[in-house]
Design brief:
By secondary structure, this protein is mainly alpha-helical. The chain contains eight helices and no strands. The longest helix is centred in the N-terminal third of the chain and has 30 residues. 38% of the residues are buried.
């Protein structure tokens, strides 16, 4: 059995025809707008706890912007066109076996996953910056949920996700290393607890359940 055949079997197992509520939950989960409040809360903590040191705020924002640009552009603008691996939703061998939510099939190529790269890049960077267990758990749970949503929707194979997530972590580590080299420091949370970040994650999940 070839790798492609294994991937086809995996994605047809993950992309099952769920209930309307299950479809709606993951459709909303994969939408970036759903998580705008969580992003705003994280930015608030970055600014609030370093409000007396604007240089650190600027360095953190620039580092995050560079990290996110790497995660977003290298997979989509460089690797996807170069590798040119069809998404499962565009693979004529299995397209009839897949179920699509709201007719969504994504772009033609899917390797690696931008959602996985962005999600794990953000989670790793926040982990390094905040040095707080609850923030790390919430960030990585969010990223893993985002990855699952892409497979459930039938627009990514598992290797797309694994490679995308690995690249995201590497880009975050590289960016944070450069951030430290120019004088950036972890946000001093020893005497503070950014409880609103994991709370916002939990409340967003609860809202999605109630809404669907």
């Amino acid at each position: 059995m070839t790798i492609q055949q294994i991937d086809n079997k995996l994605i047809t197992a993950i992309n099952f025809d769920g209930s309307n509520a299950y479809d709606a939950f993951w459709w909303q989960y994969t939408n970036g707008i759903t998580w705008s409040l969580l992003a705003a809360v994280a930015v608030f903590y970055i600014v609030y706890y370093q409000r007396h040191n604007w240089r650190q705020i600027v360095l953190a924002v620039i580092a995050f912007a560079v990290m996110f640009t790497l995660c977003d552009q290298i997979p989509s603008s460089l690797i996807k066109p170069l590798v040119a691996r069809l998404r499962p939703s565009h693979n004529p061998d299995i397209i009839d076996q897949l179920s699509f939510v709201n007719g969504y099939t994504g772009g033609q190529y899917g390797f690696p996953s931008n959602h996985a790269c962005n999600g794990f890049g953000v989670a790793m960077f926040l982990t390094l910056l905040f040095r707080n267990r609850s923030v790390s758990i919430a960030a990585f749970l969010w990223a893993m949920g985002s990855c699952y949503s892409r497979m459930y929707l039938g627009v990514h194979y598992p290797p797309d996700i694994l490679v995308g997530a690995t690249l995201g972590v590497l880009f975050a580590l590289l960016t944070y290393y450069l951030y430290k080299k120019v004088g950036g420091n972890p946000i001093p949370y020893r005497n503070h607890n950014p409880w609103a970040i994991p709370l916002t994650f939990v409340l967003t999940i609860a809202f999605l359940f109630i809404q669907t």
